[in-house]
């Protein structure tokens, strides 16, 4: 089993930045895919960004150029640096990892962008 703990959410104004962290614990050997999803009220959960064990990344079109995903394998942590935040980025952000074809989810951290 893998346990995930997200942190870093909060209330910010448009144009500001936040960095989310997701620390994995438990049986972490073999994690080969890490990602951030988000879910806003009344909307479907969407993939925001992902990173493989080889460092390949993908981003949703809506966040390209503003968000950066990274991972620190020594700390078993994946990060999401979010710059130039917009009100449409308001959502619960959830960490997801895949280990030997099994997916695990964190509880989420809330990001609110409002003036």
How would you describe this protein?
With 115 residues, this protein is mainly β. The chain contains no helices and 11 strands. Strands 2, 4, 5, 6, 9, 10 and 11 form a 7-stranded mixed sheet that branches. Strands 1-3-8-7 form a 4-stranded antiparallel sheet, with no helix packed on it. Strand 7 and strand 8 (77-82) form a beta hairpin.
Would you kindly provide a brief summary of this structure?
This protein has strands at residues 2-7, 10-12, 18-26, 31-39, 46-52, 57-59, 67-72, 77-82, 91-99, 102-105, 109-113. By secondary structure, it is mainly beta. The protein is globular, with a radius of gyration of 13 Å.
Sum up the structure in keywords.
115 residues; mainly beta; seven-stranded mixed beta sheet; 11 strands; 0% helix; globular
Give the C-alpha Rg: 13 Å
Given as residue ranges, the uncertain stretches (5+ residues, pLDDT < 50) are none
Order of helices and strands: EEEEEEEEEEE
Which quaternary structure do these chains form?
Answer: single chain
Structural class: mainly beta
* Mean of residue pLDDT values: 95
Number of helices: 0
What composes the largest sheet? 7 strands, mixed
Report the span from N to C terminus.
40 Å
Portion of residues in beta strands equals over 45%
Residues in helix, %: under 10%
């Amino acid at each position: 089993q893998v346990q995930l703990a997200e942190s870093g959410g909060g209330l910010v104004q448009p144009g500001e930045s936040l960095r989310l962290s997701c620390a994995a614990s438990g049986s972490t050997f073999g994690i080969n895919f890490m990602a951030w999803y988000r879910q806003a009220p009344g909307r479907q959960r969407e993939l925001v960004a992902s990173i493989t064990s080889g460092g390949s990344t993908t981003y949703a079109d809506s966040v390209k150029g503003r968000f950066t995903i990274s991972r620190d394998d020594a700390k078993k942590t994946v990060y999401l640096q979010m710059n130039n935040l917009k009100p449409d980025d308001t959502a619960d952000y959830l960490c997801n990892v895949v280990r030997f074809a099994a997916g695990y989810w964190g509880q989420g951290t809330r990001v609110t962008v409002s003036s």
